[in-house]
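Predict structure. Input: Enoyl-CoA hydratase domain-containing protein 3, mitochondrial, 129 residues.
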Amino acid sequence: GVNIGLFCSTPAVALCRTVHRKAALDMLLTGRMISAEEAARIGLINESVPEQKLEDRVDELTDLISTKSPLAIAEGKPVLATQLGLPLHEAYDLASRYMVDGALGNDCIEGIDAFLSKRNPMWTKDREK
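Output follows.
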């Protein structure tokens, strides 16, 4: 944007909430393109993977995530997104309520039992206690 006479204030909102202020300012004020490696270094992306290894890396991550409790992930993602927009004390209040609820649920009980028994968990899809 700055390269064509426009400050990218709208994309800056997301950028400044993703990377450190100094990295965001560098990008926004210079208009400099960054490499995938630099994007990973500053936290704009999780990691940089060579194109020929991308599908294998995606498969590794999806395989790993698929071993986790679907209910915990489904409930956790919106809490994570919501708490980002709250003041710190409200974010902790929200997160604590969900964590307590989760700790009392079947999947957490199963996960702890599986860990102690050194076996893979058998996840459920309900939240009954």
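The mean pLDDT is 92.
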